[in-house]
Automatic annotation (TrEMBL), chains A, B:
Gene3D superfamilies: 3.40.50.2300, lambda repressor-like DNA-binding domains (1.10.260.40). This is DNA-binding LacI/PurR family transcriptional regulator. Residues 3-46 form the HTH cro/C1-type domain. GO terms for molecular function: DNA-binding transcription factor activity; transcription cis-regulatory region binding. It holds the Pfam family LacI. PANTHER family: HTH-TYPE TRANSCRIPTIONAL REGULATOR GALS, LACI-RELATED TRANSCRIPTIONAL REPRESSOR. It comes from Longispora fulva. Residues 2-56 form the HTH lacI-type domain. Keywords: DNA-binding, Transcription, Transcription regulation. SUPFAM superfamilies: lambda repressor-like DNA-binding domains, Periplasmic binding protein-like I. InterPro entries: Cro/C1-type_HTH, HTH_LacI, LacI/GalR-like_sensor, Lambda_DNA-bd_dom_sf, Peripla_BP_I.
Amino acid sequence: MATISDVARAAGVSRQTVSNALNAAHRLAPDTLARVTAAIEALGYRPDPTARSLRTGSRHAVAYPVPPDNPDRPNALMGGFLHCLVDEAGTRGFRILLTRTDRASIAEVIAARQVDGFVLSDVLSADPRLAELDAAGVPYVAFGRLGGSGGWVDVDSAAAMAEVVELLVAQGHRRVGYLGAAEDLPWMRDRRAGFLAAADRLGLTVESRPLPDALRAADRPTAIVAGDDWLGLAGYRMIGEAGLVPGRDVAVTGFNDLPLCDLVSPALTSVRIPVRLIARVLVGRLLDRLAGGPTPEHGALVAGELLVRASTPVRQG
Amino acid sequence: MATISDVARAAGVSRQTVSNALNAAHRLAPDTLARVTAAIEALGYRPDPTARSLRTGSRHAVAYPVPPDNPDRPNALMGGFLHCLVDEAGTRGFRILLTRTDRASIAEVIAARQVDGFVLSDVLSADPRLAELDAAGVPYVAFGRLGGSGGWVDVDSAAAMAEVVELLVAQGHRRVGYLGAAEDLPWMRDRRAGFLAAADRLGLTVESRPLPDALRAADRPTAIVAGDDWLGLAGYRMIGEAGLVPGRDVAVTGFNDLPLCDLVSPALTSVRIPVRLIARVLVGRLLDRLAGGPTPEHGALVAGELLVRASTPVRQG
DNA sequence: TTGAAAGCGGTACCAG
DNA sequence: CTGGTACCGCTTTCAA
């Protein structure tokens, strides 16, 4: 492996000049630059980022703690998200370092100064990792809304739920049930709130009885809005157990647009999460901040995409 | 941030002694060790892996190129796999660095000496990345079988397919169709070969007509073995289009055990891939190699787990 | 515009 | 068992 000294020797200049050729080419005389560049080419020289990091203190790397995965309900979007993250960071010369999610592991990565910043996801309220990062002064951005700072990006679930409600209203639904779960998760709470707000605004009646009972009542809801796709399928089951047919008798919507939406019968109307865009904005905000830019005032909301499928058919009459 | 010099000064020893306390504690007098340890604690000193790497040349990091993800058919197992990978590597003091999969990116990571080795997946035959790694002498292990070396781990699809065939035979099936696709992918070819071998050994007749036609024939196959779960669902559709009912009229099996197997109706019999075990063996082999151990002669095959569900019911008569 | 010297934070080697 | 010295490969500072 060629070092900077090898190149300097080959080009008949000092090591500094080689360094300048790489980092501040404009300060070199044209012919010197040409000579150095030729030597770099000839020797196949690549500066060692480790040595550079030691000197400059910047690591050109970002950590992403990989959330644990429930094998029975894997996050099918994770692979795509990471691919996009790597891609977006890569085009700006940064790498993604995976870490465990526990506080100790994160503390270690910070203490070892292995990265310049963090990308977080699945952030809970009062997440201990945030305290850790704040205390150490390590910049981060989160996928999912945070309390104060503008260092976050999230799906605009309120807007998405409003679209869902508008769809149902347009299809003639007047009484709708909401199927939620895990409401300790901020994003699940957020979706419910978005639904309720839109339902209120558009004059939809929200079912208050437990859904299994409500579906058997004479004035049963004609649609169920679920907090995610898995819950949507739970809705299918409830509907079936009430002797009704999902889609035909009761419309259903999900959230996340997992691939199973197209597979189940009827295909499930859902909201697609723009993974690529989210990765881009996350990386953009973090790297801008690392570059010394100001922290944006507000978090960024990106629109989900409502995909209407057979589970929300146009109603006859 | 405390440095090794700070600790040395605080403990009244040289930097070298602090270094020894960390890396070769047995060479220190007990009381010196105690003094140094106390100083480390007091100052919260953590050695900087970047500086250490510069000196030793080892990065304590492993690269994993993230395969691109088809949004319409995401790899639902990726999140869990990466989590396991991080976990297994982490317990041995190694980190996972994500990279892009293209040859140029990999060449860059190698040239920049950013990792000690690679974990690969989705390796094609004559994969250009292998040439790159071999040429540079960078150690690697692959999820998925490789030509010569023992640096790989894979699911024993032949054994798994044998289990599938045995199940079908036991259930009274005599004529079975195979539904494959993307046979340029080694693992897909491997599954088909495993099926054919087992069918041959157990005297099963393999359907040779195109499945849509065969299902309409009088001597139609009574079961379909699919190369993966998505193909299993394609099988469901073919069966339905032939006026038959999957599970009841024609048994179906998949492969991978995606979560959708439990969701579809009938639930799809499939083979679960032991992701955690695979990650463990991959990391184990790579790190053993990095530690100077010998390369194993053979690749490792790990058993898949056949999960029998409603799509392969016990046959009446 | 170019170069010499110092140093980033550790570890290897060797002397005592 | 401990410490002095050189050095890993690069960039920053300051003179020439």
